[in-house]
TrEMBL record:
This is Crotonobetainyl-CoA:carnitine CoA-transferase CaiB and related acyl-CoA transferases. Residues 348-369 are annotated as: Disordered. Pfam families: CoA_transf_3. Residues 350-359 have a biased composition (Basic and acidic residues).
Length: 369
């Protein structure tokens, strides 16, 4: 196989749980050597259910193909064992609260003296500076504080918890990889590394781009259910079918909308959804609820009008399209010989490890081994 783009680069990964480990998984898949530095009892994710034999499945899918070492970072003697690794590292990823690495003598200012070419990436909820910098939080909190959740919060009786971890992945993992690659390119030009400040809450404003454009242009920001892409239009939303499933309708463009309305035999007076959007939505809701999901799939799929039945995860992983693209082809191998598909990462197959390459889940070993 041709050389991978990050082959020969060394990554020191001090991160835990999801954002950092997913980012370093992408770097590993692109050819980098990732050395995961864990506390003596291991990354907390090692204990997350479900178990695959004696291995945590969530840990396996995020960390296969890396190498792990155990270090007590509060022990000066054990920290000293990191120096040879820092000297040869190209990238460091950490996910502690601001200031923690500096207190341990492992902050960017200290390490750049040892290795001025080091690209040092810090992932936090609110960034290294600012009034919220030391505030605790998780994905839901970052989306809440940035106003993103307000666009589609559900009802007071049934609040909606988003199914995707937009802040962890879209605000942490992906921006980390993007900025690391940009910093490496800058290092190619200048010979110098840098400190990257990745705040997961920052990217929540990126996800709210349309609502922000509306608010800045008109002086009024959209409220719950008012954004066209968050429940504000009958052309874009979810409708329940007779058998308790859902139809995802994304018929925004007029040609798709006309086709969809024709398939539902929607009255002409309701097809102009600007007149009375609520009435149009109610009529669509009634019609969709009159048939099972399979019937709507049979009717609408041939029309190609951006209407799809919401698949379960079980159906999605068996979909012939995704199977053909090999999204679940790369696997993590546990110590007992079990295999589980690696977390799906958005890297072109030409730029990552071969699907059939061995990716063992790293055992936790002392730094001296």
């Amino acid at each position: 196989m041709a050389h991978l783009p990050l082959e020969g680069l060394v990554v020191l990964d001090f991160s835990t749980l999801l954002p950092g480990p997913l980012a370093t998984l992408m770097l590993a898949e692109a050819g980098a050597e990732v050395i995961k530095v864990e506390k003596p009892q291991g990354d907390d994710m090692r204990h997350f259910p479900p178990q695959l034999g004696e291995t945590s499945a969530p840990f396996a899918v995020l960390n296969a193909g890396k190498r792990s070492i155990a270090l007590d970072l509060k022990n000066p003697d054990q920290r000293a064992a990191l120096r040879p690794l820092v000297e040869r590292a190209d990238i460091l990823v950490e996910q502690f609260r601001p200031g923690v690495m500096a207190k341990l003598g492992l902050g960017y200012e200290a390490l750049k003296v040892i290795n001025p070419r080091l690209v040092y990436c810090s992932i936090t909820g609110f960034g290294q500076e600012g009034p919220r910098a030391q505030e605790a939080g998780h994905d839901l909190n970052y989306a809440a504080v940035a106003g993103l959740l307000s666009l589609s919060p559900g009802t007071t009786r049934s609040p909606t918890v988003p199914p995707m971890l937009a802040a962890d992945i879209g605000g942490g993992s992906l921006p980390a990889v993007l900025n690391i690659l940009l910093a490496l390119r800058r290092r190619d030009l200048t010979g110098e590394g840098m400190h990257l400040d990745i705040a997961m809450s920052d990217a929540m404003f990126t996800f709210a781009w349309y609502g922000l454009a509306q608010g800045h242009a008109t002086g009024r920001f959209p409220g719950a259910g008012e954004n066209v892409l968050a429940g504000g239009s009958p052309r874009y939303g979810l409708y329940a079918t007779r058998d308790g499933r859902f139809l995802a309708v994304g018929a925004l463009e007029q040609k798709f909308w006309d086709t969809f309305c024709g398939a539902l035999d929607l009255p002409e007076a309701l097809r102009d959804d600007r007149r009375d959007p609520a009435a149009t939505r109610a009529a669509i809701t009634e019609r969709i609820a009159a048939q099972d999901a399979d019937e709507w799939r049979r009717r609408l799929t041939p029309l190609d009008c951006c209407c799809t039945v919401v698949a379960s995860l079980d159906e999605a992983v068996r979909d012939p399209h995704f199977t053909a693209r090999g999204l679940m082809g790369a696997t993590a191998a546990t110590p007992d010989g079990s295999r589980i598909p690696l977390a799906a990462v958005p890297i072109d197959p030409q730029l990552r490890r071969a699907r059939d390459e061995q990716r063992p889940v790293p055992a936790l070993k002392p730094a001296s081994q």
